[in-house]
Structures are given as structure tokens and as C-alpha cells.
Amino acid sequence: MASEARRARRKRRLTHEQRVLAYALSSGLPAVVVAVALLWAGGFAPRVQWTLGVLIFGFWLGFSFALRGRVTRQLQTLANLLSALREGDYSIRARGSKDDDAFGEVTTEVNALGETLREQRLGALEATALARTVMAEIDVAIFAFDADGHLRLINRAGERLLAQPAERLMGRGAAELGLADCLNGASNGEGPNGERAVNGDGAASRTLQKKFPGGAGRWGVRRSVFRAQGRPHQLLVLSDLTRELREEELGAWRRLVRVLGHELNNSLTPIKSIAGSLESLLSREPRPADWRDDMQRGLSIIGSRSESLGRFMQAYARLARLPQPRLEPVPVGELLRRAAALETRLPVEIAAGPEVTVRADSDQLEQLLINLLRNAVDASLQTGGAVRAGWSGHAGVLDLWIEDGGPGLPNTANLFVPFFTTKPTGTGIGLVLSRQIAEAHGGTLTLANRRTAPGCVAHLRLPL
Questions:
Q1: Which of 41, 260, 340, 364 is the 20 to 30 A CA-CA neighbour of 251?
Q2: pTM for the predicted model, two decimal places
Q3: Phi (first) and psi of residue 391, to 5 degrees
Q4: What is residue 455's DSSP assignment?
């Protein structure tokens, strides 16, 4: 009953136009009553009284309805403008707007709002057209799926990958398109086919070996989430890694052949030259008196170069056959002290840190420390400096450092280039092998000159 009474009261309420008309009639009613009373009390002829009375009532009603119509037309104009903006038509403008009255200010602001919305929509259309053009021309397959797993967007590269036009693909499910394992695959750790997956920038990325109707190979899969019309969507990006991997492989083979060729030429050229000289010496008749000494020196050089070439090949084989680390708890302090005790040419000062344990391959990590300590001692022996080593642990990271008092590093660009060395008898493999061991344990190895004293400092950082 109460709700019916409220509805009945709402029905009885006057509209805005009716209230404006009522206000206009009420404001003029006292003047009309006074005028009519004076007219009838003034002793005028009945014809004059009726004529003037009709005119007074006519003007009163006419001005009242005119006032209602003016207010109504202005509000209807404003309503039409706002309705056009709501419908997306930004070309309609209110005419005759002035800044010296209230309604003129309103229409001016609405016109300005329409112009702003028109410019924003034009910018959005241009940005959308640019995005569509870029998506169409980019050489990466892009797919967008809605919350139900249905395809809502695809570019030309995606059409070529699936070997079908977009008209046949739109609205189909990921499983039907053969993209379910890409869209729903593991976002971290190991994928379903053993591929490695990582997270970065809020998106899941991994690599995948897969065959599509438009091509087969190794693909980089990147997945991210965005919202459209308030609902979550998934963006799937597939990039063909086969060409890049082949180029990297070809570049690696070229670098390897260049290094091997350089080292082989350095050893074989003098061997060939000396062997020719010895052959010529043996063919001479009569032989010179010191031919035995020449033969001994020549054979000695050939043996030395052969031994050097053998060391080089052993070092390369060692670098190429580095096994995966077998992780086990390793006390850092004990390992560093054991490696320092193996260096007998110069005492190594140990700055003890907190007793921490890392999960590592003790044999590989010890070999890394031996290499770094040997380099530090070699450098310090040149200048008579000292060698210090220590470690610290903070924020879940072990920082192990070894510093020497040598001449320092003249150039750090080639430190980790395989087979590059500045030592007369060096192989150029120690630092490269050490960095491989550090990276295999999830850490890093860096070398830099000391800031406050001559010499170099090596930093090994490993996760605790």
C-alpha cells in the first residue's frame, strides 16, 4: 500500500514545464487581478471593460506560455546536444551561444566538450589504424583470445602460420586451432615438452618445439593478459627462433674455426718451415760439421710447438666438455681455505666472513677458485704485492672476492674471450672456464681494477 501511494504521488507531481508555466501564471496573477478590478471599478462602458479584460488575460496567458516554451526549447536543445555526444556524433553544435548569460555559458561548454571528444576519437582512430598496420606488417604471429578461449584478433603472420584466412579462424577455440599448449602451457619452470619457461614484465615466456600448418621449428612463446570491455583477454605472441638460432650457430662455428685455424697456423707454419730446412740439410753432401746441432735445435722446436698445440687442444676439449654441476651443500670458508693452501708460491691472506653454505659442485667451484688464485698470484709476483681473499653474505647472495697487488688490467674487453691470453705460456681458457662454472651455478663472475690501490679484484656472486 505504501509503495502504491508513493507511485501515485509521483504521478501527481508536475513536470518541469508545468512548474515553469505555474510559476509564470502565479507571478502575473496579482497584476491581472488588480488590473481587472480597476477596470471594472472605473465606470467604463461594458464593451470597453470586456475588450480590455480579454486583452489583459490574453497577454497574461501568452507571455506565460511563451516563457514556458523558451525554457523548454533551450533544455531540449541541450538534451539533443548531450544525446548526440552519447551516440558518438560530435559534429552537432549549438548556435547562438553567448558568454554573457547562463545558458550561453552552458552551450559554450557543451560545444567545447564535443570538440574535445571529437579530437580524442580522431586520435584514438588514428592510433588504432597505426596499431592495426603495425600488427599486419610485423613478422611475428599475434593472437588475442577472450575469457572463453575463443580467437578475437589475429594478424597476417598468424594467418600464414595457421595457413587459413582470418574469416575462417575468428571465433574458434584455442584447442581447435592447435594453440592450446601455447595458450595454457606452463608459465614458470619446465614446460610440458621440457622447454624452459621464465617470467618477465608480467608476461610468461618460453620456447617450444612445435609444428604448425604454416611451418615447423622452435618458437618463442610469450603470453600476457589484458582487459577489453571489462573482461580478461589473453595475448599470445609466437616468434620463429629457427633463423636466429641458425645464425647464432653459424656465427659460433665461424668463430671456432677462426680461433682453431689461427692456433693451428701458429704451430704448423714453423713446424713446416723447420721440417723443410732439416730435410734440405740432410740432402746436402757433404753435410756441414754442425749439422747434428742444427738437427737437435730444429727437432726441439718442432717438439715444443707440438706440445703447445697439444695443450691448446686439451684446453679446448676441457672447455667443451664441462659437465653439469652436481649440487650439494658446500661450506664456503672451508673450500676457500683449501684452495688457498694449494698455492705455495705466495701466501694468501684470508679475511674470514660468516660461516655460510652454498649448494654447489665442490670440485668445479674449487677449480674456479684455483684459477682465480693462480691469476692473482701471477699478477702479484710481478710487483711484489699481496693476495687477499674473503667472502660476505647478504640479501641471499654470496659475494666471494679475491684481490691482488699486481699491475692491474690494461684492457677488460678480452678477459673472457676464449684462448685470449697475455701470458707467454697461457692457454686463455682459465677465466672462460671459471665464468662457465659460475653461470652453471646461477651466479656471475666479474673482474675489475681496484679503486683505492693497484691491482685487480675478482667477484664471484652465487645465490645462497
A1: 364
A2: 0.41
A3: -155, 160
A4: S
